[in-house]
Amino acid sequence: MNRQVQLKSRPSGIPQAENFQVVEAPMPEPGDGQVLVRNIYLSVEPAMRGWVGAVANYSEPVPIGGVMRSFAVGRVLASKHPDYAAGEYVTGLFGWQDHAVVDAATIQRKVPADGAPISTALGVLGINGLTAYFALLDIGQPKPGETVVVSTAAGAVGSSVGQIANIHGCRTVGITGGPDKVKLCRDAFGYEVAIDYRTADLDAQLAAACPKGIDIYYDNTGGAISDAVLKQLAVGARVVICGTASVSSWDPVPLGPRVERYILVKRARMQGFLIFDHVARYPEALKQLGEWIASGQLCYLEDVLEGLDQAPDSIAGLYRGDNLGKRLIRIAKDDGSAL
Amino acid sequence: MNRQVQLKSRPSGIPQAENFQVVEAPMPEPGDGQVLVRNIYLSVEPAMRGWVGAVANYSEPVPIGGVMRSFAVGRVLASKHPDYAAGEYVTGLFGWQDHAVVDAATIQRKVPADGAPISTALGVLGINGLTAYFALLDIGQPKPGETVVVSTAAGAVGSSVGQIANIHGCRTVGITGGPDKVKLCRDAFGYEVAIDYRTADLDAQLAAACPKGIDIYYDNTGGAISDAVLKQLAVGARVVICGTASVSSWDPVPLGPRVERYILVKRARMQGFLIFDHVARYPEALKQLGEWIASGQLCYLEDVLEGLDQAPDSIAGLYRGDNLGKRLIRIAKDDGSAL
Asked: Which of A6, A75, A185, B169 has most Cβ atoms within 10 angstroms of its Cβ?
């Protein structure tokens, strides 16, 4: 049998455990051009909120009763496609389930068995690292000496953003929640200043950390954190809109201070980013990210839950801030055998 | 004597007549390197609100008791600078007054006596036309077939934006206030659709006018009009933040629907524009704008008040929407002699 996590009901706002159900389905068999994958690690992303929302955004909503969409890394058990062979590791949108039969075209890439741990294919060498890389460099356009502020600074995306900004000679200021993450930001991810938004007078601490204003704001939260940051933009600032983790519901659209005047007076640029627009350039970014990991310039942290039963509550936990690092669900040993 | 309009008190929000006073000052005399100008036309801009606000934005606030800052076009009466001679027409920030003594370096440019009417140096061949040109082309980056929505579509900036977008092969949709301006948008400024925001179901009319979404939003108003437009952005949309005419006060910052999600889902770009960042490129733009005027592709309309006594209420009138076209105050005949 194949255990799956299905979407049971459509959440309003952040998906909760009760919106999912764990079921047993028949073991799938690959047809021509298809591959059977034994999933090993499943990914948990803030973006999953959008994937299950009733309103189509950049992808179709996961249907009720459908397997939850997710990235996974796993091992090929059987292949009916000439490009893939049993034993190889692959990553792609394989879903929250033990086994997936997928068309070869939907496999994102092979994951080398002798490189970084295969779990990194879902984080720093997956869409999180790729997002940080392209969004910071393309939209943020960091220059040496500039001040870069990152929200969810210790998160899977934010931690890479801060380090890549440091590599480019910027000063980095991280905004995060709680003392453990503040410490992580400074000790592991190289932020010059880390601010705990839960306890801080954010306006005052940002002003102290950014005396010349904020040149780049890499925004993963939206909401009150952004309201504070936008007040302190420098002339010509770039604001990367990557996520809205702090806003619990967009239906109806919540109110906040109008941004037009900040944008106008500072001649700032605010731009949204979606990693799926950049697929063609993944190889160049993965090569660079891999080199930075190998040289010790790019660290990552993983928050690994054990077993498929952890999946239903895992997104809500992410929004509660339970995790330290990239949240994954481990459902098999790295060789694909049962836990 | 030299009649001047001084800032009497600092307005909160939109400057009203009572915030100004008309006074008589001694006739100024030019020193070395200076020029005495007889102002002929004075300009009235929405941006003047910011120039008299207590909060410094991109320029220092006009001091209480100071002559109101404004662009003007006038004629040189006396020159103690070798580059300027009596009888020449010039434009620059000469202020709301009959006569100005200015350092030659503050003169923006000479205005040819045999070209377009000298009043155009304050509008379509002044900062309004230049703003439309650079902001639409640099930030908006219009491409043939794209849908461009303009707020204050019949105004001094908006009317040029719509026509320049048409010249670049776009479909243009204007948002304006009242039936006279709706008619102007269609008949004079070439908008394919013009919408009266005062009477329309803006959401429905925008949806009907922009069935493929909005590729470029040239925003002169902010506020509720922008709230409606942002809901209908196309993927990859560009939003030019040029002004916030619909927002009566920014102290405190008013609330509106949060924009992050629209920006993110549509991978849109929102960017602020200030003409004074582009001074070095004025000549190229003035040449192009002049050619479009000469060929009849770029029309303009002027709303001319007569006499300096009209100045104090003129900004408030602009925000009330009293004007049809670029608002000017004529204080002398075109040859510089008294009215």
From this structure: A185
- ipTM (interface pTM): 0.91
Q: Which fold has domain A2-123+300-330?
A: Quinone Oxidoreductase; Chain A, domain 1 (3.90.180)
Token pair belonging to B40: 């002929």
B234/A contact by beta carbon, under 8 A: no
Q: How many CA atoms lie within 13 A of A185 on its CB side?
A: 28
Alpha helices in B65-155 (DSSP H): 127-134
- pLDDT 10s per residue in chain A (339 long)? 999 999 999 998 899 999 999 999 999 999 999 999 999 999 999 989 989 987 766 778 999 999 999 999 999 999 999 999 999 999 999 999 999 999 998 899 999 998 899 999 999 999 999 999 999 999 999 999 999 999 999 999 999 999 999 999 999 999 999 999 999 999 999 999 999 999 879 999 999 999 999 999 999 999 999 999 999 999 999 999 999 988 888 889 999 999 999 999 999 999 999 999 999 999 999 999 999 999 999 999 999 999 999 999 999 999 998 999 999 999 999 999 998
Substitution target from B260, B277, B279 for chain A, most A beta carbons within 10 A: B260
What phi and psi, each to the nearest 5 degrees, are found at residue B77? -95, -35
Spell out which residues of chain B touch residue A247, defining contact as CB-CB under 8 Å: 258, 260-261
**Residue from the list B58, B257, B269 with its beta carbon closest to the beta carbon of A255:** B257
Interchain CB distance below 8 Å, A256 and B254: no
Q: Does B184 touch chain A (CB under 8 A)?
A: no
Q: What fold does the segment set B127-276 form as a domain?
A: Rossmann fold (3.40.50)
Per this entry, what is the length of chain B?
A: 339
Backbone φ and ψ for B61, nearest 5 degrees, come out as: -65, 145
Q: CB contact, 8 Å: A257 with chain B?
A: yes
* Domain parsing of chain A, residue ranges: 2-123+300-330, 127-276
Rounded CA gap, B115 and B329, in Å? 20
